[in-house]
Amino acid sequence: MSSFETRLAELGVTLPDAPAPAANYVPYVQVGDLVHVSGQVPMNEDGFIAGTLGDGMSVEDGAAAARICAISLLAQVKAACGGDLDRLVRVVKLVGFVNSTPDFGDQPKVINGASDFMVEALGDAGRHARSAVSAASLPFGVAVEIEGIFQVK
Questions:
Q1: Which stretches make up the Endoribonuclease L-PSP/chorismate mutase-like domain (predicted)?
Q2: Looking at residue 19, what DSSP letter applies?
Q3: What is the pLDDT of residues 78-108, one digit of tens each?
Q4: How far apart are CA 1 and CA 56, in angstroms?
Q5: Which CATH code of 3.90.76.10, 3.30.1330.40, 3.30.360.10, 3.40.190.10 fits the domain covering 3-14+27-152?
Q6: Is residue 40 within 8 Å of residue 73, measured between CB atoms?
Q7: 96, 74, 91, 66: which is closest to 9 by C-alpha?
Q8: How far apart are CA 88 and CA 54, in angstroms?
Q9: What band does 1 get if pLDDT is binned at 50, 70 and 90?
Q10: What torsion, rounded to 10 degrees, do the Cα atoms 138, 108, 130, 90 define?
Q11: pTM of the predicted protein model
């Protein structure tokens, strides 16, 4: 088990198998030492976590969905690294899209669910640049979608 996976286990997190793409794209592309991971959407045992922030979904529920996206991002990175998460050097950037009403302005608080998880799980390697933006709608009505860029060795 990698040192990052040991830390994840301490947090009670087991990385799932990397989710398969839902359309005509690949889940990640490696260019040099950077892995660009396609947008990940939140799913649990009941299916997609859908909702609109500012219309019945709380910031806390949105942040929890963003955390699930972060876990899927790491699962994709692990797959890109041939199953060896210790090849991860750092999280470079996350871009988070929040399904929200026009007057909702707490997108950063929602995407903090992913950012906070990356730092909690990876320490300084989890600190990253970030964007958190509103979206009028997202695929399958999900609350959030997050993509990422990761440096690997």
A1: 5-139
A2: P
A3: 999 999 999 999 999 999 999 999 999 999 9
A4: 40
A5: 3.30.1330.40
A6: yes
A7: 74
A8: 35
A9: low
A10: -100
A11: 0.96
